[in-house]
Specification:
It is built from 15 helices and no strands. The relative contact order is 0.15. By secondary structure, it is an all-alpha fold. The chain starts with a helix and ends with a helix. It is globular.
Length: 333
């Protein structure tokens, strides 16, 4: 059964990520630096929301099948990473940014900047069975956690000792970064929040808390940038206390709408199902808009960012929803 509040949360998180990437290229000490820094600081909690939603959907289950659910999802996300890395690499080839076969392979492994999310979700997904067994008291083959929390970290460290940073094996292990396992903490936290009733008063408390924390985070980031003389997102880390509080406030707000009847129609579920595809394609659309000169360079920066953001949202969702109607393309999103 679909949960409307999680659909709304996922859509909001996706739109927030688009806005983060829209303003990220504008960071300089301009007249609008403070506004850009506030937006970038205020929306950091959007990314942890995806892991918290995964925790709700998987850890709240009474049973979590490793072979039928966990491993197929991890393999699909891994395949999507390499497929979309290749797609973005084709764009770089088209403009002559790749000169050798070695560069080609290295860039394919490293992926586009925003694709880090897929390996992070892979590592979190692989850690879900361990978290599920602890939360539900279910028996888990001890070989699995040993492979997960001992064998892989040992392999990761060994590769770091034995191979140079230029080697492809070294780069591959750094894509599937061992610390990505920590995102399972957000999954557990999301499942815990979902397991507890959210009083309706949180509907009115959560937004001011989010705003207060966001203003504080932005103020610290702006002050740090001014002191150091360059743009410094001191509190941009997804495990910073401000990001944690932002993500928690956002999820609590949406959970206050839990158990409300789903709206009629298919639009909301379709928008929610399109979010992964939107995440994957929106940097490509940013590049297209910038290359075509659709927005004049001499336009006021804040207005330019706003228009770029609106264009991205207005085009990416319909584009992905249309693409998902094509059988083969659907599997890529």
């Amino acid at each position: 059964m679909r949960r409307t509040e999680l659909d709304l949360c996922r859509i909001t998180a996706c739109i927030s990520v688009i806005l983060i990437h829209t303003v990220s290229g504008s960071f300089s000490f301009t007249d609008h630096f403070s506004a850009a820094m506030f937006l970038a600081s205020a929306l950091r909690g959007a990314v942890p929301l995806f892991f918290m939603i995964s925790g709700i959907l998987f850890l709240r289950r009474e049973e979590l099948d490793l072979k039928k659910t966990v491993l197929p999802r991890a393999l699909r996300l891994t395949a999507l990473y390499f497929i979309w890395s290749a797609i973005y690499l084709l764009g770089r080839l088209a403009v002559g940014q790749v000169s050798t076969a070695d560069d080609l392979l290295g860039l394919w492994i490293q992926g586009h900047y925003h694709l880090w999310f897929l390996p992070a979700m892979v590592m979190c997904t692989l850690a879900l069975p361990l978290a599920h067994s602890v939360l539900h008291g279910k028996k888990l083959d001890p070989v699995y956690p040993l492979l997960l929390i001992l064998a892989y970290p040992v392999l990761y460290t060994t590769v770091g000792f034995c191979f140079s940073p230029d080697s492809k094996l070294f780069q591959l292990t750094r894509v599937f970064y061992r610390d990505f396992f920590l995102y399972v903490g957000y999954a557990i936290w999301g499942a815990w929040l979902d397991a507890h009733p959210m009083p309706k008063m949180l509907r009115w408390i959560a937004p001011p808390v989010w705003l207060l924390v966001s203003v504080l985070a932005a103020a610290v980031n702006i002050e740090s940038s001014m002191m150091k003389g360059y743009v410094d997102g001191m509190l941009f880390d997804y495990f910073s206390v401000t990001t944690f509080l932002q993500a928690s406030a956002m999820l609590c707000f949406f959970l206050t709408w839990k158990d409300r009847p789903a709206p009629s129609g298919k639009l909301l579920p379709a928008l929610s199902d399109a979010t992964l595809g939107v995440y994957l394609v929106h940097p490509m659309l940013i590049g297209i808009v910038e290359k075509t000169g659709l927005l004049p360079e001499n336009m006021d920066l804040l207005l330019r960012l706003l228009l770029l953001f609106l264009i991205l949202v207005a085009t990416s969702f319909p584009l992905v929803m249309l693409a998902k109607k094509i059988p083969f393309i659907r599997k890529l999103m």
